[in-house]
Amino acid sequence: MLRSLLFSAALLCAPAALAQQADPAPQDMTGLMELYRHLHAHPELSLHETETAALLAGEARKAGFTVTEQVGGTGVVAVLENGPGPTLLIRADMDGLPVTEETGLAYASTVRATTDEGIEAGVMHACGHDTHMAAWVGTMRRLAELKDQWSGTLVMILQPAEERGMGARMMIEDGLFTRFPKPTHAIAFHDNAGMPAGTIGVTPGYALANVDSVDIVVHGIGGHGAYPQTTRDPIVLAARIVTSLQTLVSREVDPQQPAVVTVGSFHAGSKHNIISDTATLQLTVRSYTDEVRQQLLDGIARIARGEAIAAGIPDDRMPEVTIKDEYTPSTYNTPDFSKHLEAMFAGHFGEARVIETPPVMGGEDFGRFYRAEPTMESLIFWVGGVPQDQWDAAQRGEADLSSLHSSKWAPDAEAVVGTASEALTLAALDILRK
């Protein structure tokens, strides 16, 4: 009854074309939750989402979509053409993480696998991609049921390897925008571990960051720890590099431009009294604009070389700076489109459940789709997943919230899947309205 009243109120300020549309909420939450629990219990690592892709491709076929599998690896593209009009891309990501689950859920994952790097680990949907996929299916089913309410083309995709920043690029390179209808709009959502379950967050403009992983191998001249004068100590040099890197953000980047340079790993040496030949640093580098990104990457290379010269390192042993392939570009939500959907969500769900959220320095490769087709409108929004009792306890200072990628992250899945599916369907009915 409450949902019906909220929807009726929303129609008072909605476009006239929406006035005749049916409730966008999923009609089979029991079935969607069964699917969610199966997906949660059977996660697959990036680039290995074969069973997941096959299962959900079957769901798309049942709903009447034309389905193509193995797009960009394990990616799935499901197309439903329904007359003239815009082309809307709706995306969900499929991959789990090499995390051993500690949620205590009855349907917790017990899957173990070996990563492409050769590390054996538990596998878990610690980032909530299982909620993304279940909501994707709920949206797909509801839009198929409501075909008489909209006109245009749906391109619903399941993307691999989001956690490695590769899946969107691989699907684009495999012809996502040439083999299939080219989208005029793209939407997606991500569950959020810092918002109450069932709330929606929208960030117009830059929403998520450029993410680069950088390795620096610092070369020295090793020797005995008792005779440092005979060496060029790579640990001391690497420590100088770590310290100098901090000036990139504090003294070189415009203070009004967000930027992060974090050295997350420092490895060197094997024994107390041995000065090693090398030290290795691993960095995460984050920004929003391409200009700041390049400024940071150029600065890292310059500082590494400059500190090595100051330390007397010969030219043939200069530091090796490697920018890893797993680059995730920043995600930009087109502002007018974002604000339009934000207002529509508020009118439908109530203003208390919809907030404008600040950008974050996390990464999400959904941004690649807009970069590949910058004429289209694009939005990825948040759906809160923190169970209400946990949220209330945290507000009282009595509990800490688990973060995304935590082995203990267990969202209120029904609230996330139900809210996200309803919001995606509502947005699609607006974009594809007759």
Commentary on this structure:
It is elongated, with a radius of gyration of 24 Å. It has 11 helices and 18 strands. The protein has 434 residues and is of the alpha+beta class. It starts with a helix and ends with a helix. The strands form 5 sheets. It has an 8-stranded mixed sheet with strand order 1-2-6-3-7-18-8-17, sandwiched between helices. Helix 6 runs antiparallel to helix 7 (290-310). Helix content is 34%, strand content 25%. The model is unreliable at 1-19 (pLDDT under 50).
Q: Strand tally, please?
A: 18
Provide mean pLDDT, rounded. Answer: 94
The dominant shape is elongated
Fraction in helix: 25-40%
Q: Any descriptors?
A:
alpha+beta, eight-stranded mixed beta sheet, 34% helix
Structural topology:
Blueprint: H1 2-11, H2 29-41, H3 50-62, E1 66-71, E2 75-82, E3 87-93, E4 112-114, E5 120-122, H4 129-145, E6 152-159, H5 167-173, E7 185-196, E8 200-202, E9 205-208, E10 210-219, E11 223-224, H6 234-252, E12 259-268, E13 274-275, E14 278-287, H7 290-310, E15 320-323, E16 331-333, H8 335-349, E17 354-356, H9 367-372, E18 377-386, H10 388-395, H11 413-431
Parallel strand pairs: 3-6, 3-7, 7-18, 8-17
Antiparallel strand pairs: 1-2, 2-6, 4-5, 8-18, 9-16, 10-14, 10-15, 11-13, 12-14
Describe, in short, the structure shown:
The chain is an alpha+beta fold.
